[in-house]
Amino acid sequence: MTRLRTAAAAVLALSLAGLLAPAPAVAVERPRQHPRSAPDQRLTPAERQVNAFFAQYREDVLNGDLDGARQVREQYLTADLNARLDQWAAENDADPVFRAQNVPTGWSVTQGDSGAGHTTVLLTEQWDDGSTVPVDYRLRLPDLTIDDLENAPA
């Protein structure tokens, strides 16, 4: 009987120790996607690329992380397009991707035409006043790098 009590006490002590011990930290990576954007699994590769760019860029701007937003632009856009966007921003005192001083509340993406080594994706920005602004993104087909935006500065 003493052995049984000792064994039961040991099992109980080990169980409690396991419950009281701190759990190991687990890193969870969440996709950076706005809830109002289209579901990622239903998108074409070009739509996913534009959606990912816009979601990450928007999140960094909303968080006031301008260095992060710049890095996102450098990751997804060509150097030439970045230079044109910088010039546009300086001349217009507005965000060159959103073409505004505020941030869209939502967006959607739709695959456009492809040809001559490029494809287009229509990104429709949705604003808090209910208005929408369509922006055509042009991507190079080999690597899906964004190399132009509709109405991007020449």
From TrEMBL:
From which residue to which does the signal peptide run?
1-27
Q: Please, which domain of life does this record's source organism belong to?
A: Bacteria
Q: Which UniProt keywords apply?
A: Signal
Q: What is this protein called?
A: Uncharacterized protein
For this protein's source organism, the top of the classification is: Bacteria, Bacillati, Actinomycetota, Actinomycetes, Kitasatosporales
